[in-house]
Amino acid sequence: MKTREEYMYRALELARLGEGRTSPNPMVGCVVVKDGKIISEGYHEKYGEYHAERNALLRCEEDPAGADLYVTLEPCCHYGKTPPCTEIIIEKKIGRVFIGNVDPNPRVAGGGVRILREHGIEVVTGILEEECRKLNEVFFHYISTGRPFVAAKYAMSTDGKIACASGDSKWITGEAARKQVHMLRKRYSGILAGIGTVLADDPMLNCREEEGVDPVRIICDSKLRIPVDSQIVKTAKKIPTIIAGTEKTLAAPEGRAKASQLEQAGITVLCTGGDTVDLAELMTRLGERKIDSVLIEGGSGINASAFASEIVDKVYVYVGGLLIGGKDAPAPIGGKGAEDMAHAVKLEDIEVSTIDSDVRITGYPRYQKEK
Ligand code: AOF
Ligand code: ZN
After folding, report:
1. Active-site residue, 87 included
2. What is the CATH number that goes with domain 146-366?
């Protein structure tokens, strides 16, 4: 006989199989257990398709009447793209439902639990709650703020440099770590870089891993300087691309002409107020376009603006085992930096792992309230 937590771990494992295909909806996994035996499993496979619970209940090896159902997120009770999961749970006469998290979606928000209980089904919430929330950190953030969950990723040497003073940065981390970054891109709906990176490296910013859905490429380019023969512009009809400029640039005739040239190449031009792209405003606009998550792969300039505008929700730091040195070699976050230690951005929930001879650190910035 397995424990509740063990079944929920299995549901979490299943949920992860939907990674990269469910956005902006959550990854959800479900296990149906009867007489100590798993009689069915399911997960949310693709955005707009059946939810985890329905998938599991439609595939049962035997009648699930009286069975226990484990699901990482509260069953929905609304008619959306699919009928409510509470309906099929009631119809199949499930006895008990074990839930990871209550759904923060205002259309559900405890409603699923209530309906199930009203039908005499025993409901237990909070099984591996923290693990289930972390799996869907993007969904939880996006559904409650309407803005994308923003992660900043950078690779630096052990002495905190992202390139040599000459600009050379190939490579700071090894192949395995770089491969992991490509996998990471699959998990984010948008990937953001600055025009500096485009001018220096002419990157594609796509997801080179097999099966990966390419994230939307977002380039911060206040003055719309991106060359029309860059890889990004040349591939914009195949990979969705947004260039973020400023309203000031767009107000000038050259800016307007460049914007329409870019639009003809298949690019969406989004402009914000300010002298340079206002990242907070940009995030609101991206959220309106259903972009639930953004991975910043910028240089020190973009990172400085991102932290200054407090849009970064998570950091991924890859540390390579080498020392670069040089007072002019750039660090991950440029700009003015914190005035003093009291104003430094603190990272919480730090996790450290190794990938070959590189180190990966993740953490969640907590911005100081008073400025
Ligand atoms: C999913 N998959 O397995 C579960 C979800 O757009 P709809 O109609 O598919 O509804 C999406 C909402 O349903 C989603 O925001 C979440 O609140 C709830 N549960 N969604 O896509 C699932 N269980
Ligand atoms: Zn549902």
Report:
1. no
2. 3.40.430.10
What mean pLDDT is reported for the chain? 94
> Structure tokens of 232?
């990004």
**What global pTM score does this model have?**
0.90
**Whose CA is closest to atom 3 on ligand 1?**
51
What confidence tens digit (pLDDT) does each residue in 206-261 have?
A: 776 656 567 899 999 999 999 999 999 999 999 999 999 999 999 999 999 999 99
- The CATH number assigned to the domain with range 4-139 reads 3.40.140.10
DSSP assignment of 216-279, as one string? Answer: EEEEE-TT----TTSHHHHTTTTS-EEEEEEHHHHHSHHHHHHHHHHHHTTPEEEEESTTTT-H
**Catalytic one among 41, 53, 74, 297?**
53
* Sequence ranges of the chain with CATH classification 3.40.430.10: 146-366
Q: How far is the CA of 44 from the centre of ligand 2 (A)?
A: 9
Distance separating alpha carbons of residues 294 and 56, to the nearest angstrom: 31
pLDDT for 259-314, tens place per residue? 999 999 999 999 999 999 999 999 999 999 999 999 999 899 999 999 999 999 99
Span from the CA of 22 to the centroid of ligand 1 (angstroms): 9
Query: How much distance in Å is there from the Cα of 51 to the middle of ligand 1?
Result: 6
